[in-house]
Amino acid sequence: MKENLGLVKTVKSLAKILRGKPNPPASLADNEMLQVIYKRRSVRSFTSQPIPDDVFSAILEAGRLAPCTVNLQSWTFAIFDDALWQQTFDHSIPFHGNRAVIVISDSARYRQVLEDFPYCPLTEYTIAVVNASLAAMNMNVAAEALGVSSVMLSETGRSGILDAKYLKEKLNLPDGTVPLMTIVFGYARGAYPIMPPKLPMERILLHGQYQPSDRATMESWLEQMIAGYNASHLGTSFKTQLDIYQSKIGQAEDELNEMVFYRKK
Ligand SMILES: Cc1cc2nc3c(=O)[nH]c(=O)nc-3n(C[C@H](O)[C@H](O)[C@H](O)COP(=O)(O)O)c2cc1C
After folding, report:
1. What's the pLDDT tens digit per position in 95-119?
2. Contact 59, 184 (CB under 8 A)
C-alpha cells in the first residue's frame, strides 16, 4: 500500500474530503429525521457533561424496539456508566465517554424456551449479528436525535468483537453470545469531525449485475483515507492503524471460530 502520497496528492485528497457532504434530493433536504441521520458522525472526544438518566433510557428503548428476524430479539445490551466501566476494565470509558453499551449478539436467551431449535451456528450467529447491529444503529440514531453523540468501537479499550473472548470471560457470557461492539455515548467536545471519505453513490449501487468499481475511484478513495487519517491523527498513520487492525482480526478469527461453533467441542 502506498503510504507516502506526496504533498500535491495529499492536498488534493484533503480538498476532496472537505468537499464531501450529504447529498439528499433538494425536495427532502429539510426533513428532520434525515438531517439527524446525515449529521451523525463518529465522535471521539466528549465533555464531562453527564447524560441524564431519561435520555439514556430513551436511547436504550430505541435499541429494544429495533426490527429483528422472527422478533427473536437476539441481543443483550451490557450498560455502563464510568464507575462500572472502571470497576470492570480498570480504566475510563474510551474517549472519556459518559455511558457505554456493549452490544452482544445473543442466541442463548431464546434457546431457553425453544429447546428444539436446529443447530445452525453460522446462520444463527450471522442473523444475531444482523439483528444486534440494527439495535445498535437504532441507539446511535436515537442518541443523535437527542443531542448525544456516539462512536461504535470494535477494539479500543478491549471492548468489541476483536476482544470477544476476553469480554466473554469478563462479563460471564454464556455460549451462544458474542460481544460485537461497544457504543460510547457522550456530549461532543467541540465541533463535529468532518465527514470521512464516503464512496460515490454510483459505485455502491448494483444495477442488474455486480460490476467491480474502476480502480481509479478506489485509489482516489484510498488516497483520501490515508491523507485524512494522517492529517487528523498526529503521531500515527493510516498504515500503522491498518496493520494493527489486520493483526487483531487474525487473532479474533480464531477466537470467534471457537465461540461460534462451541457445540462442536
Ligand atoms: C462496528 C463498528 C466498529 C467500529 N470500531 C471502531 C474502533 O474500534 N475505533 C474507532 O475509532 N472507530 C470505530 N468505528 C467507527 C468507524 O471508524 C466510523 O464509523 C467510520 O470511519 C465512518 O465514520 P462516521 O461514523 O463518522 O461516518 C467503528 C464503526 C463500526 C460501525
Report:
1. 999 999 999 999 999 999 998 999 8
2. no
Number of domains in the chain: 1
Q: Which of 38, 96, 151 maximizes ligand 1 atoms within 8 Å of its Cβ, making it the mutation to test the pocket?
A: 151
What is the H or E stretch that residue 105 is in? strand 99-106
CATH code of the domain covering residue 153: 3.40.109.10
Q: How does pLDDT run across 243-257, given as a tens digit for each residue?
A: 988 888 988 998 999
Task: Identify which of 13, 5, 16, 11 has the alpha carbon closest to the alpha carbon of residue 239.
Answer: 5
SS3 content of the chain, % helix, strand, coil (to 5): 50, 10, 35
What order of strands is seen across the sheet that includes strand 75-81? Answer: 75-81, 99-106, 177-186, 149-153
Domain range for 49: 42-194
Domain presence at residue 94 = yes
Domain membership of residue 255 (yes or no) is no
Q: How far is the CA of 44 from the centre of ligand 1 (A)?
A: 10
Mutate to test the pocket of ligand 1, among 129, 153, 242 (most ligand atoms within 8 A of CB): 153
User: 15 pLDDT band (50/70/90 cuts)?
Assistant: very high
Adjacent-strand bridge partners of 81: 99
Is 29 a member of any domain?
Answer: no
Does residue 235 fall inside a structural domain? no
- Model-level pTM greater than 0.85? yes
Check: CB of residue 180 under 8 Å from CB of residue 252: no
